[in-house]
From TrEMBL:
Pfam families listed in its UniProt record: NTP_transferase (PF00483)
Keywords: Nucleotidyltransferase, Transferase
Domain of life: Bacteria
MF-aspect GO terms: nucleotidyltransferase activity
Organism: Candidatus Veblenbacteria bacterium RIFOXYB1_FULL_43_13
InterPro entries xrefs: GlmU-like, NTP_transferase_dom, Nucleotide-diphossugar_trans
Protein name as it appears in the record: Nucleotidyl transferase domain-containing protein
Nucleotidyl transferase domain ranges (all copies): 6-236
């Protein structure tokens, strides 16, 4: 069975500054279409057509997006994180908790809604062995801005070091995951982090300690669409990789 994929799109996008004041950063226009369009385009081309978008900030804008693009992306489901789990708790774990009653007992994917991936890399995550949990990895020149992934010789995750000043590796968390339902039990044990958030990486770390998380390195491009200057990068990726 094709696994569902959850797109985490509840964040405020503060690094996008004034561009995200009235528009969610996931819907900022890139080459005449909202950024999220391009992520969905490749998700659907990879055969992942059970899509749940978790919204929060400016959620009504996502409703407009879905009405506009429903013909191209049929069956999109939206869950409002604020309605599902409230606004008292914040962090990357909350979209997962918002959809737990929908997911229940099947494997599923989670992807950050402000990232771009190739069809090939998304397809790998659709098909990987269901016995493990998986986290996408890529390398960057400056890993201090990201969570770095420490692995063993069998590609099993040992730990995640969050934005440390002297990382031991330049292999980083690329924001794409495939989980077994056991991630939900691990999520229940997560407590608030030093950053004041509930973080999905803490649940992943708990499973990594049981040797249940593997790393899959991305084969193609990756973009974290977080700052105004990333718009030009996104345009270049789209020019070279998006064909209808």
């Amino acid at each position: 069975m094709i696994p569902p994929i959850i797109i985490a799109a509840a964040g405020r996008g503060t690094r996008m500054k004034e561009l995200a004041q009235a528009t969610p950063k996931h819907l900022i226009e890139v080459k005449a279409k909202p950024f999220l369009y391009y992520l969905l385009f490749h998700i659907y081309k990879a055969g992942l057509k059970r899509v749940i978008i978790v919204t929060g900030h400016l959620s009504a804008e996502f409703d407009k997006f879905i009405k506009l693009y429903n013909a191209e992306f049929p069956g999109l489901q939206v869950v409002n994180q604020y309605e599902a789990v409230g606004q008292e708790k914040y962090g990357s774990l909350m979209p997962l908790l918002a959809v737990r009653n929908i997911i229940q007992s099947e494997p599923f994917l989670v992807v950050n809604g402000d990232h771009l991936y190739s069809v090939r890399d998304l397809d790998v995550f659709r098909q990987v062995n269901q016995d493990y949990n998986y986290i996408a990895a890529t390398t960057v020149d400056d890993p201090t801005k990201f969570g770095t992934l420490v692995t063993d010789s069998d590609s099993l995750l040992v730990r995640i070091d969050e934005k440390v000043p002297e990382p031991v590796t330049n292999l980083i968390n690329a924001g794409l995951y495939r989980f077994t339902p056991e991630i939900l039990s691990a999520a229940d044990e997560v407590t608030i982090s030093p950053r004041g958030e509930y973080e999905i990486t803490d649940a992943i770390t708990a499973l990594a300690q049981q040797k249940k998380v593997k790393i899959v390195s991305l084969q193609d491009y990756w973009l974290d669409f977080g700052r105004p200057e990333d718009i030009a990068v996104a345009e270049s990726i789209i020019d070279n990789n998006y064909k209808t």
